[in-house]
Fold this sequence. Notes:
The chain contains eleven helices and no strands. It is elongated. Residues 197-207 have low confidence and may be disordered. The chain is mainly α.
Amino acid sequence: MASDDLVTKQTDIFKNLQENIGLVSLQIKDGESKREEPSDFNRDQYWNNVAAIFKVLSMETTKLSLAFSKKPFPSNKNTEALVHELEKSMLALVSIYYSLPISQGKTLRCQFQQTVLQILESLERFVSSLSDCVNSLNTNGDQRIQWTGGVWDAVSLELLKDNKECASKCLKETFELVTDALEELDQAILNEGVEDEFSLNVETPSTQPWSEQDITVLKTSSGLVKTMKNVIKKAQESVEKHGDTESREGIATLDELVTLTSEVSRVVDDLVSGIYAEVNYETFTNNGEILSELIRNILKFLRDSNLTQNEDSKWLDFLTHACSHNLEKLKENVLPKL
C-alpha cells in the first residue's frame, strides 16, 4: 500500500476513535443510565474492578504510544488491533461507570463521573496526538508523550469510594473558598477601602476610602462570613464523625447536605463583591440576610439529621446565636445611612 494511503487509513482509524470517545463523553455528561440497580452490589468488588480497568487502560495506552514512538509505524491491521483493544477498555470503563448504583449516592456518582470524563478527555487528546504523528505534524512526539502521561495521571487519581468521602471533600472545598473570600474581605477592611498599587481588581476599584460607618458595616459582614466558615467546618467534622454509608437514608442525608451547601460560595461571593465599589448599603443588607438565612438552614438541617448528636447542641446553639447577632448588628449599623 502506498505511503499516502497508509497515512490516510490510519488517520481515519484515529479520527473514528476520537469521535467515539466524544460521543461517549457527551452521553455521560447528559444522562443517567436506565439500568436496574443490582440487589447484590458489592462495594469492595466494584472498586477492585474499576482499578483493574484503569490498569488495562494504562497498559493499552502505553502499547499504542510505544508503537508510534518511532518509524516505521505499525501496519493498518496492527493499528486497528491496538485501537480495538484500547476502545474495549474504554467501553469497559463506561460500562462500569453506569453500573454504579445511584443509591450509593448522587455525590459519589458525580465525583466518579468527573474522573471518567477526565480520563476520556485525556484519551481523546492522546489519540489526537497519534493522528498528528502519522501526519508528521508532531514529529518529535512531545504531544504524544504529554498525553500518554495525561492518561496515566488520570487513571492514577485516588478514587473516592463512598458518599461520605465525597461529601467531606465537597465541604472541604467549600471551606477553602469561604476562607479565601474572608481573607479578601478582611484585607480590604485593613486597607480601609483604598486599592494598593498591586491590586488585581482593576475593573471596579473603590473610588474613595471608606467612611467609618462603611468599615463598621463591613466588619459586621465579616462576622457573618466567619460564622459561615465555622458552620462549614463543623459540618465537615460531623460528616467525618457520623456520616453513614450503610443505609439509604444516611447516604441521602449526605447528598442533601452537599446540595444545601453548594450555594455557599456564590452567596458569600455576592456579599464580598460589594466591597469593590461604593458600598451600597441596601444591597449589602439584602446579601447579608440571604447569607444568614443559608447559615440557619444548614444549622437546622444538621440539627435535625443523624449527622449530629445531643452533645452537638452547644455549638449548634452558639453558631445560630452568632448568625442572628451579626445580622442584627449589620442592620443596626446600616440604619443611619438608609
